[in-house]
Amino acid sequence: MGSISAFSVVRSTGVLSPIGSSVKTGNNPTAITSDLHGRLLYAANLDDGTISAFGINRADGSIFTAPGSPFATGDSPLNLLIDRATKFLFVANNGSSSISVFHINRTDASLKLLPGSPVDTPDPPINLAVAPSGKFLYAATGTNGIEVLSVSSTGVLALVDQQASVTGNLSNLAISPNGKFLFAVDDDATVSAYTIDAVTGKLALIAGSPFAAGDQPSTIAVDPSGRFVYAANQGSNDISAFSINADGSLTAITGSPFVTGVQPLQITVDPSGRFVYTANIGDRNVSVFSISSTTPGALNAVGTAAVASPVFMTITR
Asked: For the segment 27-71, what is each residue's pLDDT rounded down to a tens digit?
């Protein structure tokens, strides 16, 4: 049995403070996601093949279980995300090489699996990213690269293209807020950058890609302004920070890499674009950084918050 811990965020400093007691999920939760408005929360339970669904009390940040939870999905769900319209929840079922699509009840956070779902994929999906338009879904499939799928207005998925891996094992994706660029981390210590065709959703590798990162980058995040990219390197215990150029290419930020705790498995930027957080499973804590305004994109260590076994984080508004 796993659990989710809740924290409040001090808006001026980014410091975290625990809220109440943790809530139980299924066995071995590997990822969580929340909606843009901070009312819905979902966890992928790897060992159970289920999704735990929760609502969030906006007044105090407390979490309550949605009716009908947990919901069955495919085998070994590794990742999940909500589209910007808060209409669909997409789940990467690595064990059954498929993607599940659920319709979201925004009133009580319950889920309903769409007819025909899960949809089989050519290769086992590891991580997902959805375009801001909601029209395209991207699945990282390790050594097999990135699969591009179209998303209909009713949530039906269709394979559009497969983008071969430039180097080795692509494991995590992030899309810029304007929907023009996609970034992927590779465990050979690089970040690949692509342009996204607005009409077809297809990807094109950007000149100069891949870009050097730290050892074994695990996850990647783009700040809300679309100016910076951050990659958490679990092998070197640090963050590679980049500025995004007009063509989508990346330039290392002065001072990068920035030291984290031991084995940062996940990285996220808060919705205000002022703070960065890493889940350090080796140190059993979360590192907090502020984003510098004097050296744009550089990180300043703020402190840490103790968490039993941090694997994944999500931050609400």
From this structure: 999 999 999 889 999 999 999 999 999 999 988 888 999 999 999
Nearest CA-CA partner of 191 in 225, 164, 228, 220: 220
The token duo for 11 is 């808006």
Q: How far apart are CA 197 and CA 224, in angstroms?
A: 21
| Domain housing 67 | 1-120
- Assign residue 64 the CATH number of its domain: 2.130.10.10
- List own/partner pairs for 173-176 with CB under 8 A and 24 or more apart: 173/127, 173/128, 173/129, 173/138, 173/140, 173/146, 173/220, 174/129, 174/220, 174/221, 174/222, 174/229, 175/129, 175/130, 175/131, 175/132, 175/138, 175/222, 176/222, 176/226, 176/244, 176/248
pLDDT digits 0-9 by tens, 203-235: 999 999 999 999 999 999 999 999 999 999 999
Q: Output the pLDDT for position 58.
A: 87
Please write the tens of the pLDDT for every residue from 260-273: 999 999 999 999 99
Q: Domain for residue 95, yes or no?
A: yes
pLDDT of residue 181 exceeding 90: yes
User: How is 17-39 classified by DSSP, letter by letter?
Assistant: EEEEEEEE-SSSEEEEEE-TTS-
